[in-house]
Design a protein that fits this description.
The chain is α/β, with parallel strands linked by helices. The chain contains 15 helices and 19 strands. α5 links the parallel β7 and β8. It binds adenosine-5'-diphosphate.
């Protein structure tokens, strides 16, 4: 097991199989205290060029390794991550602020991505296509080459695994741009992957701010594919840059997800999933959070009273103490969430619970619920990305579906009901990439995930993710044209 990290965590880029220092001028701040505890380099396009050069130099060798052996290396990465799970989770708590239990879950899912795609590495193959007996026609599934992976701060371990593991399994060489708020776990994972036997230069990490590193990476002429998770405006910028080079790109860009509760639902179950959906999992800093609770009129009062009773029991505190609700990742994000609570107060008045920051160092916000929200309000339409829930009401199924679809997003949607036909109608009629029934955050690494509308395009996770990192070549032979 590697040594646990110290309180002064200064780390560099990871390029060509070794850690490379630069001018370590970006502070890494612990959200639990607001104190700096580390630093990373303020990278630039020269660092991007260096990483691409190393990745390109190693791509052919990596792609030439037998797929089964590539899979074995990914399996060893998964094992190494699991052996080091405690120290990675501790670092994750420190850089992101999340609770210890959330961090442990995240590291396990990160490892699971490598394990899952390890098993797929030797099952990526083309088809034979029947034309006539005069032809042999087949397809090859080839890797793209060097792929760029821009990762956000809310799940720095899990989302790195989600995007990099399928790319590596398919034979690509990769460059990761971690979020500047949560850069330390990425370099730790790159080092551990190296320890596990990943060849030098196949997984590179370039640190720095988005416009200085992410932008030149996304638009680089020597990049062959781009994967991005983050906000809508940045996603648009990244997609535009990638498309200028006609590069495949997929974007996962958030949501404003509806959670609809019908009177026939198991209300205890619905309440517990509501808590997870917006408060207790990463303090609501989740693209697939259940931000909009849409309650049937008949159960609204009872449901809300019981929900508020449960919210009163939630603890808010430092990730180290394993609270129910952990701090917000950064001062900027804290200001953003508090700003939306102010918007809510202007639009509707006092929240029915919460609404304040804790009076202590660090970035703590109480779990907050606004009731009586209507569809036109900003807090019903815009992504807040924190522990703030908007409650709307409906009277019949048609209205519920209309409200569920009534934002520019379409990432996930949930329904609580015991009526199986209604659940299937909801799944059919709601425009979202994933539908939860009597559940929230369902599905594992195996289930495709991605958005409709402004939530993005392309699918990550599952077998579909392999499509993002391969291209099809068709080979057509006329086997009779040399006959007399
Ligand atoms: P947030 O506003 O929550 O930080 P972003 O979408 O800006 O979300 O960030 C997600 C990731 O995109 C981070 O790694 C960030 O550094 C990176 N990023 C930010 N701006 C750009 C940009 N202009 N081009 C490419 N990547 C960027």
């Amino acid at each position: 097991m590697r040594e646990s990290t110290t309180n002064n965590d200064t780390r560099g880029h990871f390029i060509g199989g070794r850690e490379v220092s630069g001018t370590e001028s970006i502070a890494v701040v612990n959200p639990a205290t607001g104190n700096e505890f580390g630093a990373i380099p303020d990278g630039d396009s020269d660092d991007v060029d260096a990483a691409i050069e190393r990745a390109r130099a190693r791509f052919a060798d990596w792609n030439d390794i037998a797929p089964a052996e590539r899979g074995r290396i990914l399996t060893r990465i998964a094992e190494t991550l699991r052996e080091n799970a405690d120290s990675i989770a501790a670092l994750l708590v420190r850089e992101n602020g999340k609770s210890r239990s959330n961090a442990a879950t995240e590291v396990e899912i990160g490892a699971r991505y490598f394990e899952y795609y390890a098993g797929i590495a030797d099952k990526i193959h083309g088809d034979s296509i029947p034309l006539t007996n005069h032809y042999v026609d087949y397809t090859l599934r080839e890797p793209l080459g060097v792929t760029a992976h821009i990762v956000p701060w809310n799940f720095p371990v899990m989302l790195l695994g989600r995007t990099v593991a399928p790319a590596l399994a398919a034979g690509n060489a990769t460059i990761v741009k971690p979020a500047e708020q949560t850069p330390l776990t990425a370099i730790e994972i790159a080092q551990l992957a190296d320890d596990a036997g990943l060849p030098d230069g196949v997984l590179n990490v370039v640190q720095g701010y988005g416009p200085d590193v992410g932008a030149p990476l996304a638009g680089h002429p020597d990049i062959d594919g781009v994967a991005f998770t983050g906000s809508v405006p940045t996603g648009r910028d990244v997609a535009t840059r990638a498309v200028e080079n006609f590069n495949p790109v997929h974007i996962e860009a958030g949501g404003k997800n509806p959670h609809v509760v019908f009177p026939d639902a198991d209300l205890d179950n619905a309440i517990e999933h509501t808590l997870t959906s917006i408060f207790t999992f990463n303090a609501g800093q989740v693209c697939s959070a259940g931000d909009r609770l849409i309650l049937h009129d008949d159960i609204h009062d009872e449901f809300l009273d019981r929900l508020i009773d449960r919210v009163r029991e939630l603890t808010v505190g430092p990730g180290e103490d394993n609270p129910d609700v952990s701090p917000i990742v950064s001062e900027t994000q804290f200001d953003h969430v508090i700003g939306y609570i102010d918007v809510g107060r202007e639009e509707i008045g006092e929240p029915v619970i919460g609404g304040d920051a804790l009076d202590r160092d660090g970035y703590y916000i109480e779990p907050t619920i606004f009731d009586g929200v209507t569809r036109d309000m900003r807090i019903a339409q815009e992504e807040i990305f924190g522990p703030v829930l908007a409650v709307l009401t409906f009277t019949d199924e048609a209205e519920a579906i209309k409200l569920a679809n009534d934002t520019e997003y379409g990432l996930v949607a949930g329904i609580q009901t015991t009526n199986v036909n209604r659940a299937h109608r909801f799944a059919r009629d709601v425009d979202a990439g994933q539908i939860y029934v009597n559940e929230w955050f369902a599905g594992g690494v195996e289930t495709p995930f991605g958005g409709y509308e402004m939530s993005g395009f392309g699918r990550e996770k599952g077998l579909e993710a392999i499509e993002n990192f391969t291209q099809t070549k068709n080979v057509c032979l006329n086997i009779d044209n040399d006959l007399e």
